[in-house]
Amino acid sequence: MSIIETDALTRRFGDLTAVDCVSLQVSSREIFGLIGPNGAGKSTLIKMLTTLLPPSSGTARIAGFDVVSHPAQVRAHIGYVPQLLSADGALTAYENLLLSARLYLIPRKEREMRINAALKLMDMESAAHRQVQGFSGGMIRRLEIAQSMMHEPVVMFMDEPTVGLDPVARRAVWDHVRQIREELGTTILITTHLMDEADELCDRIGVLHAGRLQEVGTPQELKARIGPDATLDDVFAEITGTEIVSGGSYRDVRQTRASARAHS
Ligand SMILES: Nc1ncnc2c1ncn2[C@@H]1O[C@H](COP(=O)(O)OP(=O)(O)OP(=O)(O)O)[C@@H](O)[C@H]1O
């Protein structure tokens, strides 16, 4: 069953079509990665799926609920981990989770049980009563993921969940994302600029470029379409005309090639 389903979903800003006729199905329990260069339309797509921005045309349904006609039901079924830091550094992990439990209207008598379950799932029990400002980046990220799943959503949207983390902390986040899916059966949609993250963590990947969903497939399928030894970096370069340079940022292949020609 599709938990996320869009049909010709489109969003325009004046003359610019930021998301252009995107039709996508994401199944229950899938970890789906959305990749694409800066400005490809990833955030705009997520904003429409989380009811923060109305579509210009087309439809989107989350867990069967239309984002335009049933926004409250959609919100009750989703968790959102934003890119910007959202945990309060002056509070402890437990206090942050208590705030989220109140925000998600979890009944008072259930709160302690849910907080302890979230702390356990994210391996943070020993840090529960420490102030967040002393946490590492990876611990803060795990706490934020815990905060966004207090109400056991059927879908979680994570905007670049490991940005700024070192390789060890990133792997810890990946392990916990997988664990959420295993234990709660959650469907997870992440955006990422990291090809190894998309390759290792995601069951399927969608490549967005200039607002259009250019390709969708498993990492293996996407690589096989390019060639026998292709990497996901090659897939990205082929589809978007941008290549990834060390550090994870992009260089425009066309621009690089044009300047190489100019200097030859
Ligand atoms: N509120 C807005 N008003 C006008 N244009 C917008 C608005 N929001 C986004 N855009 C434009 O829509 C396009 C898609 O932007 P979006 O932020 O969705 O891309 P993105 O793939 O998330 O990029 P990034 O990887 O940098 O986060 C860009 O050209 C952007 O400038």
UniProtKB/TrEMBL annotation:
It comes from Microvirga alba. Keywords: ATP-binding, Nucleotide-binding. Belongs to the ABC transporter superfamily. GO terms for molecular function: ATP binding; ATP hydrolysis activity. Residues 4-235 form the ABC transporter domain. Pfam families: ABC_tran. PANTHER family: LINEARMYCIN RESISTANCE ATP-BINDING PROTEIN LNRL. This is ATP-binding cassette domain-containing protein. It comes from the Bacteria. InterPro entries: AAA+_ATPase (IPR003593), ABC_transporter-like_ATP-bd (IPR003439), ABC_transporter-like_CS (IPR017871), P-loop_NTPase (IPR027417).
